[in-house]
Specification:
Elements (H helix, E strand, L loop, with lengths): L1 H33 L3 E2 L15 E2 L3 H15 L4 H23 L3 H17 L6 E3 L5 E3 L4 E6 L2 E6 L1
């Protein structure tokens, strides 16, 4: 019984994502090479190229499609998942357009903010995080707590 649970919760999503990724990757490489959408370090305009020889771009497409397919097949579709998938789609489309047209960094930043806004607009947020210096920082309450001179203090924002 435990093996069945492990298979359904862990291995099945992993196998679906792996199958989609392995199937799509050669197709993306073929299409990008066919249209000449490669990163050639000899013809680069900015310093973001790290390869020594021409390499096809578009590596995010198989990853996106694998996560998208696995999510749609295995997770219940609700507003949170829909927000995440729409945000990921915006981000992926921006990546493909950047691969093709070398978008302005400010435009990419704005599109990333839009994608994050869609996710936050669907109701997903961060209510707190752990302070590396000790304690937690709550983002759901308008106050900052800190220790000073051995006592706890709060500033209400």
């Amino acid at each position: 019984m435990q093996f069945s649970l492990i298979l359904n919760l862990i291995l099945l999503p992993l196998l679906i994502a792996f199958a989609v990724s392995v199937t799509i990757t050669p197709l993306v490489i073929f299409i990008y090479k066919k249209f000449g959408w490669v990163e050639d370090p000899k013809n680069v305009k900015n310093n973001k190229a790290t390869h020594l020889y021409p390499v096809p771009r578009g590596g995010g497409i198989p990853i996106y499609l694998a996560i998208f397919a696995g999510s749609l097949l295995l997770l219940p579709l609700d507003r949170h998942l829909l927000g995440i998938l729409i945000g990921a789609t915006i981000f992926m489309v921006m990546g493909v357009l950047d691969d093709r047209y070398d978008l302005n960094p400010y435009l990419r930043f704005g599109i990333n903010l839009l994608a994050a806004g869609v996710v936050v607009g669907s109701g997903i947020g961060i209510s707190y995080f752990t302070n590396p210096l000790g304690g937690t920082i709550h983002l759901d309450q308008p106050r900052l707590s800190f220790f000073l001179a051995g006592r706890s203090h709060e500033i209400w924002i």
